[in-house]
Amino acid sequence: MKTLRQVLGDFTDEQLAPISRLWSMTGEPDKGMKLQIDILLKRMADPIAARFVWENLTDDERQILYRLLPPSTRGAAEQDNLIKRAQILPTKGETAIQHLVDLALVQAFAESSRYVVSSKKAKAGSVTMLAGFNESADSLYLVGREFFTPSADRTKWDMDRLVATLSENELYKTMQSYNEAWGPYYSRTDAVDMLVDTLVEMEEPLDHLPNFDPLAYKLFVWLRKHDGKASLQVVRDFMQVDDATLLKTLRILAQHGLAFDTFSKGERVLFVPQALYSSMRSLTAVKAAGKAKEADTKLIELSRDPAAIRPSENIAVYDIAMLVNTIYQQTIEPTQAGRVPKRIATKLRSTLRGQPRIDYDDGDDYIEILLNVMESFGIAQLTNPTFQESKPAYQISPSLEKWAKMSLLEQTHALTRYWLENFDWRDVYGVNYVSWSTYSWDVAGGRKALIKHLYNCIPGRWYTVDSLLQMIWKEDAFAYRPTTSYGRTKVRKDADTKVKWDRCEGEVYRGILSSTLYELGFVDVGHEHADALSSTTPINPDYFMITELGRKVMALGTPDLDKCVLEEPLAPRGLVVQPNFELLLLQPDLPTLYALLPFAHANQLGIVSRLTLTKASVLRGLQAGQNVEQILHVLREHSQKELPQNVEYTIHDWTKTFKSANVSQVLLFEVSSEEAGQILGVIPSLQELSVRQLAPCIFAVSGSVELQKVRKELEKAGVFVQITGEVFSRPQNPFGSYLTFGRY
Hints:
By secondary structure, the protein is of the alpha+beta class. Helices cover 45% and strands 11% of the residues.
């Protein structure tokens, strides 16, 4: 086989003319044969030029060429088999192939039939073989996929993917034209992200290109006025230039990330990337609205209820309770990546009501976020393998008892403090979010600024989200981007910055209201349109209302708090135990709910909770350390009526054959005499540390108790302590400081 340069070198000037025109060149060999071939070879590697080629081919020629170009068949293909695969008549196929050969798009050559694997019969003689040229195959195949593969339609690509098609040299020059520096530590992906962010954030990209090509300028302005998309034939009618000039103009637009061409549903089109077009199209309206809002910076109350309302439901509190029940009722061994196994996660996620927290791999991190919270509060812990063959698994921590006794107000306060101080609890951003230079993003600063402004709202009254954002813009515009000696340079509060702020920080605050604060029971959210709640796509809230719970949480630790809000009245018994083993908790009562979680399967947790007693759930309760009398005591203590007899009998029947053994690690200490043992056995401080007397002179201390505390109490009692062997101290209590009350 010959190279493309060799084939073109054999052509006459008359034969080169149509090839040059096909690739959008003048077709006049007045610059010398060698120079023209050099230019033509460069042109053949350009996908934009390749689209001019595909435009001018017949359907039969496209079918033949596309089947010859895939990398898997790029070596050579038998002509007859290729025509059959293209499903066209032999005479039409031969005509199409001959035209492709004349245009130097493919080459034909004879080869002995005995060396052709695809020949069904190896007859003496030769067969005609076809092959593409390496110099043009990549660009032609890339464009051909736009014809035959829907996913290659570039109008459906996001802007990052489009810009990533630029060569490294083009990308570097483009960044320079927009005054962006490609730092020495930036990867290609970093450069693409930075260029896309720069373009989307610009008020007018053309203002940053003072020496921009006049024809490219003219076409881009015209294209924006025509909804950012037009067929290339319409573009030709408007521009009135030859294909060589049009090719140059299209290349300039693409190299500056402004517009790209492609084949879409068989038609060649020119389009502005959707992200860029949307930002420019809405810019004027957004700026005008911003100027109007600037004059009025007070919270605006709504005189009526919104058309659609989503009342808060304390989702986060009850989702944590659901996870506690799941850990009681089944073994959860995380994967090596630290995630809940997919099979368990899929089933568990359907019982949780918090919104998905999508990560960079399009996975949902919501379960892992809550597990991190639970570990921080000591509700659950990941145990180290006891034996070499076992795996780490989640189990309930002893500190759960403290959490379980807390009221709804106290749990919500603790979760709010955790959210304020920890960026690993991610929020769901507003639907129109556009990132804007978040390298020095201060999550805690932005969240605390929002809480500060919500504190001024009166519970039970509806406010517009727009007026809240305007207040934050006026007083705490850059709470998410504090100025430091090594941080951002000072940003001016002008109209351009306000546009970027609305699409970045503004959408973050909107998302926090409708995700985290809504799930914490802080706010109810409202919508202007009545059908908003039935929409299948996310919609930003238009209004919000602080709940009584939200107000109390914000007031904890301040003089504004009425002490009586912490003295919640004792709730009447709200548990209903039904003969079908279903448990109904008819009111929010977290201590009662947590008393049921070890031995009942949770079906639904919330203002009204529904659980079920099963043999498996009761046996898991026994494994967790309960006994049958404790289970029945919990049910009797909290039930409105006497337990159904069949429930009591069945629980006894389920548990009568249950046997267990508790293996634990303890520290032993031995005293010098029985008299010393009698004295130590009645010391209250040692009893509080769970010190047990096993024999007159031998005591056992749980491995979870700090050895230093035991030693201190013994020395107070006049006992000299001598430690032998290697003793491991207890790890620190992970409960942290989130359960103490203080102002934000």
